[in-house]
Amino acid sequence: MKLDGFYQDRKDGLLAVLRLVNCNPLADNIEAALDTHIGSSTFYQMQNDYRDKNIAHPQFRMNLQADFVDRMKRNLTSAAHIEAFCNADDELKACTAAAYVWLADHYPQLLEDANAADRLVDNPPSSEI
Question: Does the reported pTM lie above 0.85?
Answer without folding.
Answer: no
